[in-house]
Amino acid sequence: MSDSQAAAVQGVAHGEAHGQNPALLHHFADEEQQKNASNFGMWIFLATEVMFFGGLFCAYLIYRGWYFADFAAASTSIDALLGGTNTAVLICSSLTVVLAIWAAQTSRRGLLLAMLALTMLFGCAFLGIKGIEYKDKFEEHHVPGASFSFDHVSVPSHPDQYADPRHAQIFFALYFIMTGLHALHMIIGLGIFTWLLWMAWKGRFTPEYHTPLEIGGLYWHFVDIVWIYLFPLLYLIDRHK
Amino acid sequence: MSDHSKSSPLPTYFAVWGALLLGTALTYEAAKLDLGPFNAAVALIIATTKALLVALFFMHLKGASEKLLKLVVISTVFFLFILLALSMADYGTRLWS
């Protein structure tokens, strides 16, 4: 056995002899440092995600500035009530995430499993409502491409004017790309939470160690924050006319 | 990290949840009012408040003591701001389009 292997085995045995959590990896000084490192890593990743979505938001803001009237007309055709409901659904799911972490912190296994399952249920509800919205857009021929049509739709602020279909198509392109990318993140989040639910079921989380829950939670909250901005920007452009 | 003297975070969580739902309703209703150019500003201010609530309380930034973490979060917002502000300033100051 090499020196480092012998030292590693000795280190593990040494650590367990001192009552350390076996989840503590040997290159961390203590559990708190390990937890902070994991947390920090996820925040770094979220920073890249902010820039990822940020580029799309930038494109949206520029086009909205150029073609405000046409964007307003296009925005009026998507269902703000469904969008608002989806916002509420995600807000509730963020609550169940923090409740799941609290359940892990206080050794409430039943509540932990219930909150994780509920979070996933809310996520599925969000995707279901999104599906209904997409279906409506398909039926109305608002999907960019060969079959796109947006003729004779009045601009909200000037009912005698019609919106330019070319500019409306840009709105719908951004709508599908941004909400589609967001929905993809939602699906990935559901995958992550399936894994968390599985780990929780197997009893891997304790008050001392539940870092995957916190990391997964950070990702989920980020997806929620993106939608918090998407909703007013896409659905509520010029609704008061 | 265990702080056995900490009081329950549950009341805070439910208060933030309520505030978020309230903010959503507010955004929806405010969109129905005619505030001219301020509609967008109001919507974004409410959205930013909601995002801050999620980040500070649900993502546990408020209790975080690591300075490096706070630096990363602030830089992220800063760079996003540069992306948005300078891009829009570029296009906004082009007289020909």
Could you please describe the fold and organization of this structure?
The complex is a heterodimer of chains A (241) and B (97). In chain A, a hairpin with a 2-residue loop joins β1 and β2. In chain A, strands 1-2 form a two-stranded antiparallel sheet. The longest helix of chain A has 37 residues. Chain A is built from 7 helices and 2 strands. Chain B has 97 residues and is mostly helical. Chain B has 3 helices and no strands. Chain B folds into 2 domains: 63 residues; 33 residues. The N terminus of chain B is likely disordered. Classes of the chains: A mainly alpha (241), B mainly alpha (97). At the A-B interface, α2, α4 and α7 of A face α1, α2 and α3 of B.
Work out the strand percent of chain B: under 5%
Output the number of helix runs of chain B.
3
Q: State the domain count of chain A.
A: 1
Counted beta strands of chain A: 2
Q: Which fold does the CATH topology of chain A refer to? A: Four Helix Bundle (Hemerythrin (Met), subunit A)
Largest interface: A-B, 51 and 48 residues
Number of DSSP helical runs of chain A? 7
Q: Report how far apart the termini of chain A are.
A: 78 Å
Walk me through the topology.
The complex is a heterodimer of chains A (241) and B (97).
Chain A: H1 3-17, H2 31-66, H3 68-76, H4 80-105, H5 109-139, E1 154-155, E2 158-162, H6 165-201, H7 211-235
Antiparallel strand pairs in A: 1-2
Chain B: H1 10-30, H2 38-58, H3 67-92
Helix pairs in contact in B: 1-2
Outline of the structure:
The complex is a heterodimer of chains A (241) and B (97). Chain A has 241 residues and is mostly helical.
Characteristic key phrases:
heterodimer; A: 241 residues; mainly alpha; Four Helix Bundle (Hemerythrin (Met), subunit A); 7 helices; 74% helix; 3% strand; elongated; B: 97 residues; 2 domains; 0% strand; disordered N terminus
